[in-house]
Design brief:
With 286 residues, this protein is of the alpha/beta class. The protein has one domain: NAD(P)-binding Rossmann-like Domain (Rossmann fold, 3-Layer(aba) Sandwich). Helix content is 41%, strand content 13%. The protein is built from nine helices and eight strands. It has an eight-stranded mixed beta sheet with strand order 3-2-1-4-5-6-7-8, with helices on both faces. Strand 5, helix 5 and strand 6 form a beta-alpha-beta unit. Helix 4 packs parallel to helix 5. The radius of gyration is 17 Å and the shape is globular.
């Protein structure tokens, strides 16, 4: 059950992307337990149905809706955003949780390296498309799940699609982009009542990195140091619900505390350059 000291979200709508399993599913459950109506998104209809049933079993009476979109298709992201805005003109919380790790280079139907698109371009586009509904219901929150992996990342502005650089660094690059996107977004939203914050979920024991990205032997060695998926959701839930929005707006949180952000995220020119590049890639005004 939700902590009785946690602010209620009754009457509020939350969206959690990539919520069919892992941290995303526990984030959706946590928001439902606080009284929010929750839209869970994912790319697979059966997994969406299973996630909805699981949350409703864990929290009887929860108001759970589903939306299907594959983030490897910007066309599907736009279509999903259109459906959401048509049905829900006021949104209180958006948690950009969806993400992946690729073991080999694959390009999307839009022509971008898949990690770059799914982890960064798709949430960048979705957030911008949903901004009118978030602003209409201010105070509201945008929480983007990044990672400490960003500390080994760098935005190669001339090669974000990893055609010349090592694919293995595509994930850290995308997580750094999540943080830089959040910082640029927070500046644009100053005074609007919409809070933008990036979070690190912790080193979570989930299937996220296990499916081919990390060998079974290495996974077995690091397993004792991992935290549960439920604990991994705590930072997102804190960012989405803490009453002190001013203390976290435009920040990067680790274990619910503002942390020094990595590398290029401290370069204001690079942050703005990434925003312009991303806007051009997804076809929206910068």
């Amino acid at each position: 059950m939700a902590n009785p000291l946690t602010p209620t979200l009754s009457g509020k709508l939350a969206i959690v992307t990539g919520a069919t399993a892992g941290v995303g599913r526990y984030t959706a459950l946590g928001l439902a337990r606080r009284g929010a109506s929750v839209i869970v998104t994912g790319r697979d209809p059966k997994r969406l149905a299973d996630a909805k049933a699981w949350i409703e079993a864990e929290q009887p009476g929860a108001a759970i809706m589903t939306e299907q979109a594959d983030f490897a298709s910007l066309r599907q992201v736009r279509a999903m955003a259109g459906r959401i805005l048509s049905d829900h003109p006021a949104i209180s919380i958006l948690v950009n949780n969806a993400g992946l790790i690729m073991t080999h280079r694959v390009t999307t139907e839009d022509g971008f390296e898949t990690t770059w698109q799914v982890n960064h371009l798709a949430p960048f586009l979705l957030t911008n498309l949903l901004l009118p509904a978030l602003k209409a219901n201010a105070p509201s929150r945008i929480v983007t799940v990044a990672s400490e992996a960003a500390r080994s990342g760098r935005i190669h502005f001339d090669d974000v699609n990893r055609e010349r650089h090592i694919l293995g660094l595509a994930y850290p690059q995308s997580k750094l982009a999540n943080i830089m996107f959040t910082f640029a977004l927070a500046r644009r939203l100053a005074g609007s009542g919409v809070t933008a914050v990036a979070v690190h979920p912790g080193f979570v024991a989930s299937n996220f990195g296990r499916k081919g990205a990390i060998s079974a032997a290495i996974w077995a060695l690091v397993r004792p140091f991992q935290i549960s998926e439920q604990r991994g959701a705590e930072n997102s839930l804190f960012a989405a619900t803490t009453p002190d929005a001013a203390a976290i707006s435009g920040r990067y949180l680790v274990a619910t505390k503002p942390a020094k952000s990595p590398g290029q995220s401290n370069d204001a020119d690079a942050v703005e350059r990434l925003w312009r590049l991303s806007a051009d890639m997804v076809g929206i005004a910068a």
